[in-house]
Amino acid sequence: MIKIGQYNTLEVIKLVDFGVFLNGGDDFGNILLPKNTVPAGTKLGDKLKVFIYFDSEDEVIATTDEPLVEVGGFAKLRIVGATTIGAFADWGLRKDLLIPFSEQRRRLEEGEEVMVRVYTDRASGRIVGSTKFNRFLDKTPANYKVGQEVQVVIAETTELGYKAVINGEHWGLFFKTEAFGKLFIGKQLKAYIQEIRPDGKINLSLQKVGLGKVDDLADKILTSLEIKGGFIPVSDKSSPEDIFRVFRTSKATFKKTIGGLYKKGLIVIEKDGIRLNDND
């Protein structure tokens, strides 16, 4: 079954001067892949991975160009124009993505970059964008477990921290105390479920929850010390920025980890760094 607004693998069934036709099945028939996006050496029977969308005439068409986002996804896009029907965003294809006025939380202006959710409008069947995320999220129960790894995209900033979309389905929040490192709107990364509150809201962490993050970091520190000749110029007195730059972790977790390594006699904590304990 052909999925509009997503990637499909389709068979080449006809070669023409202006491109090739792909097998779109009973629902779509022959789908054109224009000549300027046909891979060199393409022949009958080849199966090509293509993105299916609508051209400027609202006809189904294929392309090997890669969009910045598929239907159902979120991405930070640049607004390239505004008309009486809405704003248009560059999503990496020749035809820009329409964001209707009714799908804008505020009027969008040319040149700005905004987070957009791409979906298929049921009434028209067209692929459009929206900045009104709430109606797409938290529609299903959040069946996550504390410590579970998830994929997130940073969508908004608040006084509390950063709001993120979890697995394209639910809202989550990184509190400022958890948001060490460089987070920004549109950044995609892995995260961990830190807490599911009684009201259903989800708190996120950039690190594994509990002992898991300490164990992983301990191995990383010991390995780094061995590679660096037994000494690294970062200690519990270092700034949070320096610690994150070297070990990609918070200062609190770093201090807890090296404290555990010290108690085991594996390292020595010095004023200007940490050193492998080479005493037998």
From TrEMBL:
Classification via InterPro entries: CvfB_fam, CvfB_S1_st, CvfB_WH, NA-bd_OB-fold, S1_domain, WH-like_DNA-bd_sf
GO MF: nucleic acid binding
Domain annotation S1 motif: ranges: 3-65, 70-132, 145-207
Protein name, per record: S1 motif domain-containing protein
Organism: Photobacterium toruni
Family according to the record: Belongs to the CvfB family.
